[in-house]
Structures are given as structure tokens and as C-alpha cells.
What we know:
The chain has helices at residues 3-13, 20-36, 54-61, 73-86, 122-131, 149-160, 176-183, 204-211, 215-223, 226-244; strands at residues 44-47, 65-70, 90-94, 107-113, 133-144, 187-201, 250-263. 44% of the residues lie in helices and 24% in strands. By secondary structure, it is of the alpha/beta class. Helix 2 (20-36) packs across helix 3 (54-61). A seven-stranded mixed sheet has the order 3-2-1-4-5-7-6, sandwiched between helices.
Amino acid sequence: MDFHQFKERQGKVWGLGDYSVLSRVLEPAAQALADACAVSAGQEALDVAAGDGNFALACAREGAGVVATDISPGQVERGRARAEEEGYDIEWQVADAEDLPFEDARFDCAGSVFGMMIAPRPEVAARELFRVVRPGNTVGITAWTPGSFCVEMFQIGRSYSPLPDGIPPSDQWGQEGTVRERFEGLAGTLEIERRTLDWEAPSPDEFISAMEGAPPQVAAQGALPPETLEAMHADYLTLVRRWAGGDGAVSIGAEYLLAVARKRG
């Protein structure tokens, strides 16, 4: 597997479209992770695979000094503009979650909200998060759990645009046993809980319409023929109707895993 090629493509994909439609839904999970990691004033925090900076901003609001990274230059531009608009001094860098450009033990907390889970070599990404955190301090992640609404959405997408051979599905990070295995030898303690995020829309059709502007869907629109896009759209609509219980207002609780580890001393 050419991991460099995969990551280069991901960097381009996540710079497409309108990420804010996803960011708004994911923001409560970022605050939940900052709270679970007990990020506070005077600390240094790192947001890995930051998107447009939900976790970075949650940490900055607590008074921490924050660095945010993403493999997508487009996301970094979005995040930098958002931080400036909201009045927070956050340092933004284009960086690979599997090769973070920071010295060992620099940060008090390293977190990733539905971002690092996409890295093609999960054990490498996990080691990097722990490497840049000081002993006794925190590493936190969130990931969608198998069988959740979001994982079913991903599975539809993968059925039309399969992952390359050798790339593990991101929902493996949503399995408690997998997290414990990948953090083994790195974490002194590990706390894991399940939470939900609410996805809402006036109707299934309006839900799907809003999602069509998100980066993965914009990428699919540029890569798949019209008849395939139409079939994929129908599959997504069927999924949302099933979870929403019909064609009325959509209110879906999507389960995710929140894990907070303390680095071995």
C-alpha cells in the first residue's frame, strides 16, 4: 500500500466543499473531549487532524495555549480563519498525524476528534500522540462505534468508493478492545465511555441535501458517474429514513466512543 499517496489524496479531499456542515454537528464532542481531558489555563494542547478546529477552540476557550494540525491545507486555512474570527490565538500547521513535527513531551494534552481515526497506520498515529505528550498527561480521542448511524453512512460510501487494500476502516477505533490494544504500553491509565451526538434536519431529503456539500460527498461527485451517484443518494436516503423512522423530522443519536488515556510516567 502506498500510504503517502493515500494521505495525499485525503489532504485534497478534506479541503473540498463546505466542512462547516459537519463541524457544527461534531462540536459538542470536541467540548466533551476537552472536558474529559481536563484541559485548563496554562496548559499546552495539541489538536491532531483538527478539521476546522473544534477541539483546538474548546481548549483555547479554557485558556490553554493551543497548536492545531491537519493534513489538509484547506482545513488549515479554514481553521486559521475561524480562530481569528472567534478571537483566539491558535498556531496552525499542515502536519501528518503519523509524523508530528514536534519534540518529545511538548504538550500537556493531545486530542483528536473524529480525525486521527482516518490515519492509515493507526498504531503509528497512536505512538505519535503519546510521544508529544508529557509523562502523566493526557491523550484523548473520539471515534464512531461499529453499528452506529455514522458508521453505516461510511459503509455506504465505501461500497461505492472502496478503501485501498491495507487501509483499516476508521470504525475500528470505535471498539474498546481495539483502543486498549493500540494504546497498550503507551497508556498508564485509560478511561473509555460511549456517548451520542445528535444529527438533525427537517426531513431526510434535507439531511441528504446538506450532507452533499461535505468534503467526502463533493469528492464523490467529482469521481463517480451520475447513475452511481444517484444510486448512492438513494442508499443514503434509505438509511436516514430507517434511522429517523420515516419522512418526518430527523433526530438521530449517533453513538461514539470517547477515550482518555494518561501517558505512562
